Amino acid sequence: MIIEFYTLFGRIPLYRDQCGHYATYPRWKKDIVLHLRYIADFRICCPVKQVNEHDAALSPVSGLSDRNVVALRPDGGWGSVVRNLVPNAFRVRRALSDTQIAHSDGAGWAFPVSYYILIMRLFLKFQWIIVVESSFFRKPAHGSVKLRRHISHYVHTFLLRQCVQAADARIFTNRAYQELFLGHDKASLIAPAVWIDQDNIVSDPVHEARKPDGRHRARFLFPSRLIPDKGVQTVLDAIHLLEKRHTEDGTPVPQVDIIGEGPLAGHCRQFAANHSSELVRFHEPVSYGAPFFAFLQDYDAIIVANLQDEQPRIIYDAFSQGLPCLSSETGGTHDLITSGETGFFFKAGDATSLADRLSELADAAERLHQMGHTALSQIGTSTHENMHREREVFLKEVMSLASQTPGRQDDDVRAQVEVLL
Predict the structure, then answer these.
(1) Of 56, 136, 366, 388, which one is least surrounded by beta carbons within 10 A?
(2) How high does pLDDT run on average in the chain?
């Protein structure tokens, strides 16, 4: 267990009620609680909002109180970003004043908290861990972008590179980030982001709804946040191409369903309504966990259409259910998928390339099923809990950390964590 005073800095908000109780969304709560397994003196510095009593999605985090939360002002529009700039700098400064280990990430709107830490690194003494798992600020590898996005790409890339190189330890979710922001592997760890639990992993990827029978048309699912950078338009354009080809020459087409939420949800919903349900359907989101994994089991493979190099967690979700992936080829997906064994690639942002792949696999449900077995066999011990355990081992190896001797206190902390979970 790490016993130094450890502060996690981020932009994901907590929610506080009038009694001083904290809550957040279930997946973020799970991540916070798992930090408590190996950090004895934990604090978090992040935006804090008032609890909305109508928001049933929030889950209480009983392990947090005002004692170990430093509240940043939440950013809304650009006006609030400017107003909050100096106050939040002072709050980060206050959190760092007695911090021995600072842990921050490389993303967060409007800019990462890491930028504050980079400046304060000049006159405060602490050890710094930075985790790079997203690059929302970078322009897509394909297609034109507005001038503001172009400027953001270069400014954020430059600043984050300075942060990564100034840190004492770095964790990347894929090798492309390590090469881009660091350029070597000293004091760094490649640790893909995984959110599944051991009990989410199926023992056999055979499901009655998708057993190949020689006549079974392949069924693909595009599960995604419905935003431009996830390649939503690429998927819709590919479906349109498939429909056109089928009408013209009888080209085989698979079923392609869409599930998710985001700014483009209405667009996707209308697109599905305007096309045959035999070709495409839109589904409202289901809760992450057992309901979502059960939903996945009705499909033969998933589609990942990312335009950027981030590492999609959905790939591990699919593998855990014995589903291969049809994915755009980016730095974040290339590390996880083996072409022809656990999935196939198409050119990022290229609807024709995706449509070609879907046509090739339209009648290949049995082959996809076999690949699903391979994908499942590769999941191994890749769980959310083991991801945290790997990070703990790495941090103790590369940083000067005091390690508590396992004993009663360790057992007490673990018992408390079990209650929180």
Answers:
(1) 56
(2) 87
- CA neighbours closer than 13 Å in the CB half-sphere of residue 136: 11
Q: Which residue has the tokens 């080809």?
A: 245
Q: H helices within 274-383, ranges in order? A: 290-296, 314-320, 331-334, 351-361, 365-379
Query: Residues with Cβ < 8 Å from 97, sequence gap 6 or more?
Result: 124
pLDDT-derived band at 148, boundaries 50, 70, 90: confident
Structure tokens at 212: 């190949």
Pairing of strands 343-346, 101-105: unpaired
The DSSP secondary-structure symbol of 64 reads -
Helices (H), 231-283: 232-249, 265-273
Closest C-alpha to 9, from 35, 27, 30? 35
pLDDT of residue 335: 85
Place of tokens 């072409």: 339
**Tokens in use for 181?**
């922001």
- Provide mean pLDDT across the span 294-307: 94
- Structure-token pair, residue 34: 């798992």
Kindly report the pTM of this predicted structure.
0.85
CA dihedral 232, 238, 239, 243 (to 10 degrees): 160
Residue type, 155: V
150 pLDDT band (50/70/90 cuts)? confident
pLDDT, residue 162, reads 96
Residue type, 374: T
Q: How many Å is the Cα radius of gyration of the chain?
A: 23
Is the distance from CB of 123 to CB of 98 less than 8 angstroms? Answer: no
Per the CB < 8 A criterion, the answer to whether 164 and 181 are in contact is yes
What is the pLDDT confidence band of residue 415, given thresholds at 50, 70 and 90? very low
H/E element holding 414?
A: helix 408-420
Residue among 101, 123, 104, 133 at smallest CA distance from 398: 101
For residue 391, what is the DSSP state? H
Mean pLDDT of 270-288: 93
Strands 219-223 and 14-16: unpaired
Region for residue 20 given its phi and psi (left: phi exceeds 0; alpha: psi -120 to 50; beta: otherwise): left
